[in-house]
């Protein structure tokens, strides 16, 4: 079974009422018509289907660029009570992305960033991450090491395709080596 890929130049439109959308790539449009908002995201690079993400909710957002000039978009669930998560993930993502760019070569995509969501059981945060293309998804409990690991996937970890899920270690080993 061959790995499935979304074509280069994938573009997606989402129609929502009262909610925002964060996805892979760059936001290229947003317009409101009556009570509906159209959110348009585009990823120019090819992408394995398991790396696609669409996160719908209410977000605290910061967008701009890293000190190295790479466009950055960080979205944090406002229900999270940990103070200043937007700034923390913004700084960490920017620093790590620029560091990996100086170590591994130019950042391979149009945008970097993070999506931070709450995951808890009986009031205890559950750490997890998902290395989606351009914008990994993290729990609020994640560490800077996890951010560095998931961003390393953007250069090497996801350039190794696999035919079966028991070969996913090929992707993980390269990102683990980087961190």
UniProtKB/TrEMBL annotation:
Residues 139-178 form the Peptidase M1 membrane alanine aminopeptidase domain. Its cofactor is Zn(2+). Its EC number is 3.4.11.2. This is Aminopeptidase N. Belongs to the peptidase M1 family. The keyword Cell membrane does not apply. It catalyses: Release of an N-terminal amino acid, Xaa-|-Yaa- from a peptide, amide or arylamide. Xaa is preferably Ala, but may be most amino acids including Pro (slow action). When a terminal hydrophobic residue is followed by a prolyl residue, the two may be released as an intact Xaa-Pro dipeptide. Keywords: Hydrolase, Metal-binding, Metalloprotease, Protease, Zinc. One of its GO terms (biological process) is proteolysis. It is an enzyme of class 3 (hydrolase). Signal peptide: none annotated. One of its GO terms (molecular function) is zinc ion binding. It comes from Actinoplanes auranticolor.
């Amino acid at each position: 079974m061959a790995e499935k890929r979304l074509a280069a130049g994938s573009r997606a439109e989402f129609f929502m009422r009262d909610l925002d959308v964060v996805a892979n790539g760059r936001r290229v449009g947003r317009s409101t018509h009556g009570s509906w908002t159209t959110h348009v995201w585009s990823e120019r690079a090819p992408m394995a289907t398991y790396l696609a993400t669409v996160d719908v909710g209410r977000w605290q957002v910061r967008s701009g660029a890293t000190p190295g000039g790479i466009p950055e978009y960080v979205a944090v669930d406002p229900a999270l009570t940990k103070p200043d998560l937007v700034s923390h993930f913004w700084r960490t993502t920017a620093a790590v992305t620029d560091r990996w760019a100086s170590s591994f070569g130019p950042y391979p995509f149009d945008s970097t960033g993070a999506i931070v969501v709450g995951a808890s059981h009986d009031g205890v945060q559950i750490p997890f991450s998902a290395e989606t293309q351009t914008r990994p998804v993290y729990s609020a409990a994640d560490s800077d090491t996890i951010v560095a690991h998931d961003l390393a996937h953007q250069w090497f970890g996801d350039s190794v395709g696999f035919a079966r899920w028991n070969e996913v270690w090929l992707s993980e080993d390269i990102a683990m080596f980087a961190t």
